[in-house]
Each structure stands twice: as structure tokens, then as C-alpha cells.
Amino acid sequence: MEKTSIAHRACYSDPDHGTARSEGPSAQRTRSRHAAVHTLLAQGASHGQIMRKLHLSRNTVKKYAAAEHAEQLIHGPRYSTTLVDPFRDYLRKRRAIEPNVATWTLLGEIKAMGYQGGSTLLYRYLGQGRADGEHPPPSPRRLTRWITTNPAKLTPAQQTRLEHTLKRCPELQAVAGHVRSFAALLTTDHDGNLDEHTARLDAWIDKVHTDQQAPALRSFAEGLLIDHDAVAAALALPYSNGPTEGVVNKIKLLKRQTYGKAGLSLLRKRILLAQKHHG
To answer: Region labeled Disordered — which residues (predicted)?
Structure first.
């Protein structure tokens, strides 16, 4: 899903889908280099020839050659969550009404609303332009997390931003539908009806195979075919190897705690004692 989000970033990041976006010099340079590298690759040039022609290092050429889309190499500004975030919409609307309002005035207003931060944080937040315009498009990783999370567990703000983002890109919206359909396969009752669950799994795989907009998801579906019988059984039957995996994880933890300090005999005793205590 993250690969698909990266591939369609130009679609959902552009509010005027299809028009040229305003980008910084770094993003423009990345797009230009990516186009140049892939043009030479299509002409049959080797990595060494591309290095000499474009005056790039070998690792840089490898990086650009491995990226199918330029968006995979372009990273927008990454901001961490701050105490100002809950008041962003208020600040945006307030500055739209009075563009020259003093930051000190805004500080007093949001403090009355419950803001617990200081003036420096607010000055930096506004200086970075984080209260300007609508919410910036989410990063591919954040968008992936929203799509793969149970909608009931998203906050109202996250649900609104997810819906707004997907509306900008119909292709990505279709892929998100596949993800939710697969989640429905995993969360249905394990009633033992193998034939019914197998049919539903096969229908999902066939539907993904016909979608040309999701090559990464199609690759995932092909991987399911390799273990088709096991996947179908996992959907239909109530059995789980979770307890076994839990024991294995505990053994690995005990092993790491004494790594290089003791031998097998102590590890064996700790494992047996841990199992006895757990029982």
C-alpha cells in the first residue's frame, strides 16, 4: 500500500490534478535527474555511461534507476506533532479574517482556549507556514496507515482528511477499496466453511488482478496464490499459531538478555522457569 501511495503522490498531492504544481528547486532537480536517467536506460546505456554523461556518482545512478517514479525520491517537509496542532483551524480562519493580526494576540487567544505551549513554538509554527491554507497532503506512510487502519479507530479529523485525500485520486481510492475488502475477509467469522471462504478469497484476487492501477497490490495477490490453501484455511478455520509465536518471542527475549554472558544450561533453566511461571 505504501508503494502505491508513493506512486500516486502526484495525484493526491495536487489539488488541481493535472496542472503543474509549485515545487522547490530540490524537487524539480530530482524530477529532471530521474527523467534523464530513465531516458538513458531506455536507450540501452549502462550505469557507468550514465555516470559519465550526467556527472553523477554510481550510488546516485543506482538510486534513480531503481525508483520507478520520481515521487519515490521526493520527500516533503516532515513535521512532528505539536501543541499548536489542535488550534490550527482556528489560526487559519483567524488570519484569513485579519491577515496582519499580531502573533502575540493569537497567542493570548489560543491560551484562553487551552493552549499549553509557549510563544516560541507558536512563532515557529506560523513561520513554517503550517497554518496557511488547507491541511497539506499526508505523507505516503501516514496515508498508508490511515488506509490500513480500521475506519472505526480513526479520529474524525483523520477520517475527514483521508476521504478528502482519496477524492483527489480516484485510482488510489479504488486501491483503498481493495484493502478494505481484504480486511473484511480477515475479520469475518472463522466458521469452518472452507469452500465459501476460498471462493471469497479467489474473487478478491481476481478483482485485484484486473486493476492495472495497483501493481504492488497485484504482486501481493500473486504471493497469496503461492500459499493459497494455507491462506484459505487461515480465513476459514479458528486455529492460530499465535501462542506458539508468543513462546518463540519469549525465548528470543531471554536469549538476548543473557547473550555472551552465559551458556545453554542457564538459558534452558530460564526458559523452563518462565514457562512454569506463565502456567
So the answer is: 1-31
Tell whether 193 and 249 lie within a shared domain: no
Contact 94, 109 (CB under 8 A): yes
Q: Which residue has the cell 469452500?
A: 195
Residue 34 lies in a domain: yes
CB 74 within 8 A of CB 25: no
Closest Cα partner for 173 from 4, 54, 3?
Answer: 4
Residue 44 phi/psi, 5-degree rounding, is 95, 10
Query: Could you tell me the three cell numbers for 273?
Result: 522457569
Domain encompassing residue 250: 242-278
Q: How far apart are CA 202 and CA 140, in angstroms?
A: 28
Q: 86-114 burial by CB neighbour count: b if 16+ within 10 A, else e? A: ebbeebeebbeeeeeeeeeebbeebeeee
Calpha distance 122→127 (Å, rounded) = 8
Within a domain: 63: yes
Q: What distances in angstroms separate CA 165 from CA 9, 118, 142, 156, 162, one per listed residue?
A: 10, 32, 12, 14, 5
Consecutive 10-residue runs of the chain (279 residues): their mean pLDDT? 83 53 69 92 93 92 86 66 87 88 92 92 83 73 92 88 87 91 88 89 92 85 92 89 87 83 83 72
What pTM was estimated for this model as a whole?
Answer: 0.58
